[in-house]
Amino acid sequence: MNADSLKSLLTAVANGQTSVEDALSSCRHLSVEDIGYAHIDHHRSLRKGFPEVIFGQNKPVKQIIGIMERMALWEKIILVTRIEEDKAGAVLEKFPDAVYHKDARMICLIKTPLPVSGKGDILVISAGTSDIPVAKEAALTATAMGNRVETIFDVGVAGIHRLFRYKEKIEAAAVLVVVAGMEGALPSVVAGLVDRPVIAVPTSVGYGSSFGGLTALFSMLNSCSSNIAVVNIDNGFGAGFMASIINRL
Amino acid sequence: MNADSLKSLLTAVANGQTSVEDALSSCRHLSVEDIGYAHIDHHRSLRKGFPEVIFGQNKPVKQIIGIMERMALWEKIILVTRIEEDKAGAVLEKFPDAVYHKDARMICLIKTPLPVSGKGDILVISAGTSDIPVAKEAALTATAMGNRVETIFDVGVAGIHRLFRYKEKIEAAAVLVVVAGMEGALPSVVAGLVDRPVIAVPTSVGYGSSFGGLTALFSMLNSCSSNIAVVNIDNGFGAGFMASIINRL
Amino acid sequence: MNADSLKSLLTAVANGQTSVEDALSSCRHLSVEDIGYAHIDHHRSLRKGFPEVIFGQNKPVKQIIGIMERMALWEKIILVTRIEEDKAGAVLEKFPDAVYHKDARMICLIKTPLPVSGKGDILVISAGTSDIPVAKEAALTATAMGNRVETIFDVGVAGIHRLFRYKEKIEAAAVLVVVAGMEGALPSVVAGLVDRPVIAVPTSVGYGSSFGGLTALFSMLNSCSSNIAVVNIDNGFGAGFMASIINRL
Amino acid sequence: MNADSLKSLLTAVANGQTSVEDALSSCRHLSVEDIGYAHIDHHRSLRKGFPEVIFGQNKPVKQIIGIMERMALWEKIILVTRIEEDKAGAVLEKFPDAVYHKDARMICLIKTPLPVSGKGDILVISAGTSDIPVAKEAALTATAMGNRVETIFDVGVAGIHRLFRYKEKIEAAAVLVVVAGMEGALPSVVAGLVDRPVIAVPTSVGYGSSFGGLTALFSMLNSCSSNIAVVNIDNGFGAGFMASIINRL
Amino acid sequence: MNADSLKSLLTAVANGQTSVEDALSSCRHLSVEDIGYAHIDHHRSLRKGFPEVIFGQNKPVKQIIGIMERMALWEKIILVTRIEEDKAGAVLEKFPDAVYHKDARMICLIKTPLPVSGKGDILVISAGTSDIPVAKEAALTATAMGNRVETIFDVGVAGIHRLFRYKEKIEAAAVLVVVAGMEGALPSVVAGLVDRPVIAVPTSVGYGSSFGGLTALFSMLNSCSSNIAVVNIDNGFGAGFMASIINRL
Amino acid sequence: MNADSLKSLLTAVANGQTSVEDALSSCRHLSVEDIGYAHIDHHRSLRKGFPEVIFGQNKPVKQIIGIMERMALWEKIILVTRIEEDKAGAVLEKFPDAVYHKDARMICLIKTPLPVSGKGDILVISAGTSDIPVAKEAALTATAMGNRVETIFDVGVAGIHRLFRYKEKIEAAAVLVVVAGMEGALPSVVAGLVDRPVIAVPTSVGYGSSFGGLTALFSMLNSCSSNIAVVNIDNGFGAGFMASIINRL
Amino acid sequence: MNADSLKSLLTAVANGQTSVEDALSSCRHLSVEDIGYAHIDHHRSLRKGFPEVIFGQNKPVKQIIGIMERMALWEKIILVTRIEEDKAGAVLEKFPDAVYHKDARMICLIKTPLPVSGKGDILVISAGTSDIPVAKEAALTATAMGNRVETIFDVGVAGIHRLFRYKEKIEAAAVLVVVAGMEGALPSVVAGLVDRPVIAVPTSVGYGSSFGGLTALFSMLNSCSSNIAVVNIDNGFGAGFMASIINRL
Amino acid sequence: MNADSLKSLLTAVANGQTSVEDALSSCRHLSVEDIGYAHIDHHRSLRKGFPEVIFGQNKPVKQIIGIMERMALWEKIILVTRIEEDKAGAVLEKFPDAVYHKDARMICLIKTPLPVSGKGDILVISAGTSDIPVAKEAALTATAMGNRVETIFDVGVAGIHRLFRYKEKIEAAAVLVVVAGMEGALPSVVAGLVDRPVIAVPTSVGYGSSFGGLTALFSMLNSCSSNIAVVNIDNGFGAGFMASIINRL
């Protein structure tokens, strides 16, 4: 339930368009709703300005749809992350207005987009071609949360002149999300170029001693730049979310 | 060299108080200065609004003093982190205006404090009594960088009613730094209470399977709250720095 | 062989309904029985009040059925854990009275339920929707062992007000089983609310630096609450068993 | 503040021996008390039947004494764990009635012992001579919490006949704490002999691939016995505490 | 080439049944033979009393057959380990006298069995039902190498009376191979009962913190018994081989 | 774009065969070209003497073909590594002149081979039959980069006389690439025999405590020979590349 | 108590030199003796042919002496391992006949040496100079247990010709103990040269990615030779013991 | 024994200045010399152009001096690495011509320097001030082996413009050694700028999740540049040695 839905409801009561009983019933779910396999927090977008996001991995598609149905009563934006193509198909049959972004493995159901706000642009940079899916998850999240988002892909440190071509764009960003696998060095370099906050996202791209992203993760945590903080491996969503929270401070 | 120093110099030249030759010589260090064991980046506070911070660990005290002497020519604030009491004593003999914060293992040499700015307060919370040194390093850093800083210590999740006594203070903060060792659960709980960015700092406090802070670190990276990003173990300085960068966005 | 079976047998001998020879033959398996691929401990339910439980993972279905056939001669309750749907199907063909709980991956063959006993209720709490299968394994085990069992699902620490809605239920429980993946913080918080024993179960739910449950495991071992002990990752059965043992002390 | 202290106070007020003002002042600390570096939870022994225990490791002795002074106003029992001999000396100067147990690195300040209660005996078993300090920490904790405690030391699995000499004592115990380093096999063997709950404590005793107790910890978590739960490496206190909580269920 | 083959060849030359040229040609492969993807060491059974054993895992079936064809010219026994059922089928078509042991994933092609020799029996013990495949690999290897082999399966430490039923058999063995997954405690207990060498084999059986056998491996390396040495996880072949080498000392 | 292509273009302009406008347009891609999912560095073979190599793993085949199409305009040699058979099939349909090396999982598209140069031969040695794919990747890379390459396969340290048969070849090489899985000991032994640089390549061949190549990797990093440096697990390409760079110094 | 002591006692009783009462009293300790901090197994040398060995690390010197005093009543040989020089001094004051081997950190108190027995020589080989202490611990143990022992030190694989100078000695040994740190490759090479059992001992010698001996340990477990089994890091005593057990089979 | 020493000796014999007997005696050590705790390989500088280097860590100073005394008879250059100041003092008393480099913990005893040779300069770059000791070990080694060596210190990636100031020097080097701790990103960036071989050296500088250099090590192994190979953590000597071997190819 977002602030607008609540306001409409109260106005309808004030106008006599809705009886107090009906309004009460509608508000029943303003608190946490227990649907057996999940507790849906309908208060969340009122309190936080953005509703809960559904983590699709490991969840049966029936549960995903069940949660969406409850949320769809009140929310204008519903995001589902880490959802594979076949499960997404079943969701889209139920919610034809939803859009599935295959490379980012993400469903966006946006009835009314949030107006663009925030201090400035969020810039999402990725080191390699294979890091793009995680980078896109970050970009889609930040966009859905009402930010203007720019992207630069495939500018890893092994050919650092590729990065420097975008110096202006980099310096103009308010918040940066930098995505890298393998040695995970790109966030350190980027953070050294700017005085803005950088959210670093390690990816599981690599082989051998990349350890499914651990090497990149630890590399980022040990950055000698100080305007960096790190999220979990492949957590593009978390990075986009954190960047949005910072941008709208 | 900060912007004020540069402006004074240029004014003095304009007024004829300083000859062009002398000014040139003074500016010699505006670029990076190589003193053998270190490259001092005098541009940094011009570019970034805050000078380099000296990481004291492993550095011979002679090198620390050497770097401080070069920086002190231009900078109004010099911080040294991770410096033990005996080395700090030698530094304070040379720089009697510097202050040593023993529990945070930090030297602050502040000729002219930065004016308080930023969106709001930075709140530093620590889970246990033993986490206080890291929390203080974060708080001192954020204060030196021109923020109003509040602290709450020893409110770990095992007695969560202690935390809830500070609900108002928590909800009022613009940016939060949450410091915890052992199971590292506090940042998740705090982040669930607010819609502001939380910088989580794992500490090496604990024993056995705390692995010198790794358990807390991984716990924080896996937080089911999304408004969290993490810095390295015991990196109070980094957390205070990142929080400041965010707060002044 | 449970105490009732033994008593019936002895009574039959006393009554002359069973010859001593036949009784002897029946008792042959009172000791350990070697069936080639397994040593079945028929003494166990006599000694311990509950028969052996079959760990289904990695065992060929033929062996599972073979063991069940030997046990079924004497036991009133047979549990099989970690058995996938296809193997379970083959078992249920042989034992039509058995019930397969798909989400908990568990077969319960209960000829005569144990009477409810114990100090009080066992409460099973899970942090996330994806932790439910492990939580259900714990709940089914505790129920089969003769306890009254309550459950609360999806009340992770990121929205801690969801947990506090159940404060009374939590404080009323005699023994608690708390199941969590990702950062594994829930058992610490719950244990801080009660003065009863909490069995913590880490799950392999998560990604990246959750390391298949290791992060949750270590988080729980490092809990700053002291009324916690931990079982292996995803070991819902063990937690339910231990809770039952404690409850009937 | 325990229940007795509170009752005395209220009686004194009822009798007019204490003015309401003085009583109020005394009660000031019934809630959580903030002494800067610690939040002391005076409610705890009221709520839980046992006061907070001070974790001495890493805490400056001044802080330990400071916390003890606040607690001593109300509590009848104060325990300090993991405190080295020199720091303990300083504490005992302040609190001459306290006793320091050097091998267990523990201070017990017991004004009025708790009456012995609980379902039965708690038995503490250790595998090797070097595991004794951790075993004693468990035994002292359980004793202070009002249990009858028995101990058997140095009965590791390499000479298992040593263990079997104590079969009766083992079978008679209500709750068992089993302490082992190196391969950590003892809890599995003991748990197989009884139908009571076993709290397993890995110790950091060993070398090479014992990894400071990790091997013993993982060995215990993987026990094929099901009546086992595990606490952190060297956490004798936690094991004694958990055993007491179970015993008084 | 074993000693018998060589003797026959030389006798044939001595008798004039074989020309020197033909004999020379036959001996061409007495040294190492390079067949492109492998160097076959035909000297080995002459030097060591047993030919090379083919490690089937990861090898294309064409290479396995190719190596067998070269070895079959001279050797009386060929073993292939870690070969899955489908690949084994292709091998057996080529070598109809070979036998595939499915649970041990092993092919034995035995033209002439080695006579039984050695100091005494080799006893292979396994802790759980799921450890049987590895135990059988050890037993088949030791049998093929000319030892009398006994086995006891499913006698893990959680029900240690099952083990003690076989005390005599255990004490009678000359060399013991003890196979265990999960907590890996069985070799320690067995080694404490005998004064003979014990080869411990960890298996990858388990889940969660069993880490694919690492916990069992480390447990065995840390055994407080001294008559133990350890081989790699799941290395039944190596254990059977080492036991044979010891037994024929 | 290599030097020859550039020279032809400039000559054509000089001769009037190409207008300045057309030449300009051709040169557009001399700098980095952004094709959305990749930044292609056309300068690279001009600067470095060898074009970028496409890492096929995780890249959709459409992207691989897209990158090849842009590169094929200017480059004489294109390599694609870590590409599975089905994806390779799709590539070869587009580029019929390309060759797929199935065991090395590598595509070589060589329009004009580089002339053989370098100080001497590069020798690639592999320890086991299963290490051959990685060894071949190294050999193909070095060959494509214009070196004479020799190979020796299956000469692991367990039968070290097999290695010594190739002593002359080993001593004659200018640079050596030594590939080994399992215990990874071969590079140490080989490096002890020569005074030339050895590039060591660990492979993921093995099981149990080989940890997917980590054991071999660490073994090589700890070599007591000093003329060794190491590349990532299974990184045959990197080893062949580094050996070529050294050989042409 | 060894067999000789027992025989003397019984003879004395038979001769009337000792009264039955005195003999009984003497035999009191034939069973396990509990001295509070240790259970001394006086049966052990009767049962196993060699008494318990005292692991000195972490044991207070008072306990070591206490155990030795009880053992000295009956045993002819007492070994103490891992005992530092200062603690050894205190022991030698009490037992002037004991000898301290400083580099092996071992005390040997040998009243009557065991006669040399066994199948043949035990050969102890070490890879580097720094591995000698562990190698000596193995050699001293095997010598004390009644074997003829040979040693070769500092013949690591980086200069393998040093090893081959001792080919005859190596081929003549009945059992081999091979000690190596760093890459741990020596046991693989040695085992390839012989058809006798090799006990491999990793040492903690090295730095960086040697991980205190883990790299050598895993290298040895992954040996492509099959006549190898491994003991814990730095466990020279265990290797010497196991080799003796094998040699006297 | 280097080639010059040998030539002088032979000339002296030819001239009759040395009797054959004396020469023979002098040559006694041309083969490997066994001095009990070490096998000195006097052939090495003849075969390899550079004598053995003494690894000082863990070696008693008496052994270091003993080895030096034997080597000093023939060699013109002796290096001792990883030797602490107090042990170095004892060495210098014996060898007054030796020089101790305290920051690199290295002794160089150079009677006759090697002439400068090689393809070009070796450039040693370090990321941070604290990495200088390792960088100096590399530089001293390469200098002693007859290379011209350049150094650049403190140019980490967080302020990458510091690195670019040295672009010409970097591009002019024949071989590069790049030393970095923490995130270990510098070698990737440097290797991207050149087409020469880069030897990457991780250092143990850092804290928290730097894991004593492991993060830097893995970061370097995962570099997306291909002209990189890596040596062990803190192995400045190995890097300098490998760079020299490459430079003189």
Please give a structural write-up.
- The structure is a homooctamer of 249-residue chains.
- Chain A is α/β, with parallel strands linked by helices and 249 residues long.
- Chain A is 39% helix and 18% strand.
- Chain A has helices at 3-14, 20-27, 44-48, 61-72, 85-94, 132-144, 161-164, 167-172, 186-193, 214-221, 236-247, and strands at 32-34, 39-41, 54-55, 77-81, 99-101, 106-110, 122-126, 149-152, 175-180, 198-202, 228-230.
- In chain A, the strands form 3 sheets. Chain A has a 5-stranded parallel β-sheet with strand order 8-7-9-10-11, sandwiched between helices.
- The longest helix of chain A is centred in the middle third of the chain and has 13 residues, at 132-144.
- The radius of gyration of chain A is 20 Å and the shape is globular.
- In chain A, 60% of the residues are buried.
- Chains B and C meet through helix 9 and helix 10 of B and helix 9 and helix 10 of C.
